[in-house]
Predict the 3D structure of the following.
Amino acid sequence: MVDQDKIKEAVKLLLEGIGENTGREGLLETPDRIARMYGEIFAGMEEDAGEHLSKTFPVASNEIVMVNDITFYSVCEHHLMPFYGRAHIAYLPDGRVVGLSKLARTVEVYARRPQIQEQMTIQIVDAIMQHLHPQGAMVMLEAEHMCMTMRGVKKPGSKTVTVASRGCFQENLQWQRLFFELLKRQKGGNQNEDWTEGL
């Protein structure tokens, strides 16, 4: 459970550390606001993706399932600054499927923790493999990191892309090509953006 009292004390120390007056009107309720906010944005610390992926349904035909553009917001564990973007998920069932909204819920579980994008990508694809037992799965995250745009190199608009594949998507490049082709079509078929190049 999130310890809101500890968070309030930490925020007060932080404000004092940067030279602020924690007693001024604009900051009086700030520690409480941040404690409540952290309870929300780090709710994934108390969740298990298995809760969302455990209920599956039989399917007669094992055709690819893909959900694109799942918006997520997370917090970088290195600087505690936000990174946000979209997740694209595909899996090849082996007799059973899960409700489509549960894939978005799974993304939220891992996004609402102190994270790095590379790790989050792997956690999502491994959770799908563990709980759905598909023939394979593939996950791609595209995100902008405030630790790169607001501080450090200060490069707004730069995107980080991470990909993780398992099962048939890892073993067979044809499935990877299909993933990127479906993604490209969903993005409008931009001929200048060929995700499959090099595969």
Observations:
- The chain has a mean pLDDT of 93.
- The beta strands are 56-58, 65-76, 82-92, 96-98, 114-115, 136-145, 160-167.
- Residues 117-132 form the longest helix (16 residues).
